[in-house]
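@channel anyone free to eyeball this complex?
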Amino acid sequence: MKLDERGLLIVISGPSGVGKGTVRNALFQREGHQLVYSVSMTTREPREGEVNGREYYFVAKEEFEQRIREKKFLEYAEFVGNYYGTPLDKVEAKLEEGNEVVLEIDVQGAIQVRKKRKDAVFIFIAPPTMKDLLHRLQKRGTESEDVIQMRYEKACREIEMAYMYDYIVVNDTVENAADKIMAIIRAEHAKTIRTMAGYKKLLEEGKK
Amino acid sequence: MKLDERGLLIVISGPSGVGKGTVRNALFQREGHQLVYSVSMTTREPREGEVNGREYYFVAKEEFEQRIREKKFLEYAEFVGNYYGTPLDKVEAKLEEGNEVVLEIDVQGAIQVRKKRKDAVFIFIAPPTMKDLLHRLQKRGTESEDVIQMRYEKACREIEMAYMYDYIVVNDTVENAADKIMAIIRAEHAKTIRTMAGYKKLLEEGKK
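replying in thread with the prediction:
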């Protein structure tokens, strides 16, 4: 029995290096859910093998900027000369169909979404310790010490933003973190504030 | 990793006949939790086989009334000449030890607790339909039609109080309802408002 038939907008966020993407992937491998990705829109060129609407929605810069003016993004950012954003209409359509739409975005993006969507569920993925986060950044092995140090300092600032989120999930193990997120989704659907409309309908039916 | 080391006070409530007790029993049969019952205090005589501190704390009427004056109950009620109540100090001690304390009480009791404990988690067990609730009341078979009708009308009024609770869990099947409550407990422990103190400690440790 599902009192709340609308899907949830789930924002998974946290500092860089914390393993947001890995946790999200583990989440999508679970059974018995209606989780869907939110596909971002970008102005960068498609790479080989990328399909419009699958990896990204690819649009021209003019169209993206037009959409910004029309407030058609949940959040967006510019990164090395290209725009990346979450198209509001696509997300809304998926939620209406009863899907749980998962946004995996950085802390800055999450703060933009927070301002617009009081109904979204904000989950902060935290490292077990700051030391652990530093190790994870170092293990990537593709960046210089300077870049790692810069990213680590950014992460330290981002980690202070956890209080803006509804939940803090420690990524001690990926499976554990994914379990907790599944529990959060389940619990959120049972929240009185989300179920009241469905509940009233149910009781009216019962009285017939 | 548990950021929130204190146990939760979980109030399971709902109209009479909805199956609160059955759901609670199913909950206690789950593995991997630290759920404990809250033992009520009463002024009624112990029945054969009942042990003080197990079924109830048995006290004299004078002691009970003294405790009422000292505001030592989370909630209490008088029922056919005897008092029944939830002793605050016992609940508090169990929470401090990290146990989740489950209170299974009626709607009137839950409203009393709501006023005193903003930190408690309030779960309303709802019937799938009102018809279903009526059937459950009839199936007990021990009461006259008049008593059943009275209980049903009371249940109809109680059901309107669901908006006072944090969560509404439909008792469509007992296992389903117990699953949802387990998810709620897990999610509540990850709430930022409960984890912030533990989170800060964790990060301080990490910086050493």
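from a first look: Chain A touches chain B at residues 1, 3, 124, 126-133, 159, 162-163, 165-170, 172, 176, 179-180, 182-184, 186-188, 190-192, 195-196, 199, 202-203, 205-207 (CB under 8 Å).
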